[in-house]
Amino acid sequence: MRNSGGKKYVTSLLPLQLGKKIQEEISDFELSRALPGKVWFPDDAEYRAQQAEYWLRQEAKDLHPNCRVTPASAEDVANTIKVVVSTNSAFAVKAGGHSSVSGASKIDEGVTIDMSSMSRVEVAHDQQSVLIGTRARWLDVYTALEQYGLSVSGSRASHVGVGGYVLGGGFSWFSNQNGWTCDMVSECGVVLANGTVVLASYAHHSDLFWALRGGGSSFGIVTSFKLPALKHPQVYGGPIAFDDNELNSVFASFEKLNREAHLDVHSSGYLSFAYDQRHKEVYNTFYLINSRGEASSPAFAGFLRTPSRFSHLRKMNMSTSAMETNHSNDPGYRESKLTLTFRNDAALMCDIHSIFTYFAGTVDYEPEGRLAMTFQPLTASHIAHSDNALGLSAKDAPLILLSVELRWSSKSTTEYFEDVVRRFYETMRTLLEENEALHPFVYLNYAARWQDPFAGYGVESVQRMKRVRKMYGPDSVFDILQPGAFKF
Ligand SMILES: Cc1cc2nc3c(=O)[nH]c(=O)nc-3n(C[C@H](O)[C@H](O)[C@H](O)COP(=O)(O)OP(=O)(O)OC[C@H]3O[C@@H](n4cnc5c(N)ncnc54)[C@H](O)[C@@H]3O)c2cc1C
């Protein structure tokens, strides 16, 4: 009898005809042997602490892996994947745990590979690049770099993890200048399906490197990303709130900012709308950032001329902005999130806002419930950098990336709220189709479980991703054994 992480095994009694339960026991046993002290079972306090570390309450509360593994090096990840494959065990990989799809980074009954021990942030001696562990949170990255007067392209919100964010694309305050964060990555450390550890870059395994940039988690487990360090002073920006009667002017300014984004690549912003159920009104906010810390960007002129209800613009560190943005996105709720992409058009924004206001007023919220929507500019200068799997073409730009989030608390009302969100989606989609304004792009990092991001990548991109997955296969490992990820 052996004791591993609080779990006991009678190895000599394992029958040849393996039932599911016994197969799981072998997997747990082999993992405990391969990674002593790094495999955690439901009775362990460490397991319970890790179980709670998810943005979505659905993931935190409803899914219970047989064990959680916390590799601390690429070699540990390789050993984990070898055991998982040899025992045919279903698994999920978790970096920051901020996916909005329940089951993406935690699995029920299988093995959850939790990358929480891989979060180093190392600035190169010449301060030209940064090596970032896949489970670092963006706040850790910004804080570590600010002491050098540096930053990187990363999430606008502090608590998001590096791994999932970059593999899905990564929309940052530097995107108008440099494209998606994945476009800026110069090297990824990857553990392949057969346990081989490789460095993927433009020079080595360039096909794999291409697929990892936007293709999600179908090609390997990424242990680290190298990004260029950006010399930057503080950023300038913050939120400005507007009343409904100013929205025509706000939407016109947003359309212009998106259309003329190339004139000031350092400036960007997004519009967000949140329904306050107590006061029965929508809060309309524009959050703007100039990544050079300049207050006088012409991109913001239209917004600054429009009378505002409240504004809090100032110079600040990237980390301060990221914490401010995170503040309105607390973890711990049940959520349903979805996305659509449409033509840059002020009149359409106005129509969608009206639909939002109507729907928001009809929802039977729980006390902490909230419906929110965001418009983000997908500018031509952003998309122009794309040598990635996302399949976007700059000739389609400028576009608007729309996302919706509905929040509730109790499991029993899930069906109702998911139905609300689905009806809201169908209504917006119909409007956009009728106006020939719907673009097929579905941003993987904002997509609902029932959406198909890869359909929007285009046939050419998907065929190429399939070839890459086969080449670095076996195909089945990330496709079949990892059921929670989006499939193509
Ligand atoms: C509050 C909030 C703010 C956000 N802000 C932004 C933003 O500014 N810009 C933006 O583009 N997106 C943003 N997002 C979306 C975010 O990019 C996605 O939710 C992303 O998946 C989060 O990554 P993660 O590592 O935290 O998530 P996880 O849940 O850990 O992972 C997400 C997916 O990636 C896979 N994965 C993670 N790490 C690895 C790895 N190392 N190897 C292989 N597969 C891996 C997981 O298996 C899972 O399928 C935000 C989300 C939230 C909740």
From TrEMBL:
TM ranges: none
Keywords for this protein: FAD, Flavoprotein, Oxidoreductase
GO molecular function: FAD binding; oxidoreductase activity
PROSITE patterns per record: FAD_PCMH
Any Pfam family hit: FAD_binding_4
Lineage top rank: taxon: Eukaryota
Every FAD-binding PCMH-type domain range: 61-232
Family: Belongs to the oxygen-dependent FAD-linked oxidoreductase family.
PANTHER family registered for this protein in UniProt: BINDING OXIDOREDUCTASE, PUTATIVE (AFU_ORTHOLOGUE AFUA_1G17690)-RELATED, FAD-BINDING PCMH-TYPE DOMAIN-CONTAINING PROTEIN
Name of the protein in question: FAD-binding PCMH-type domain-containing protein
Organism: Cryomyces minteri
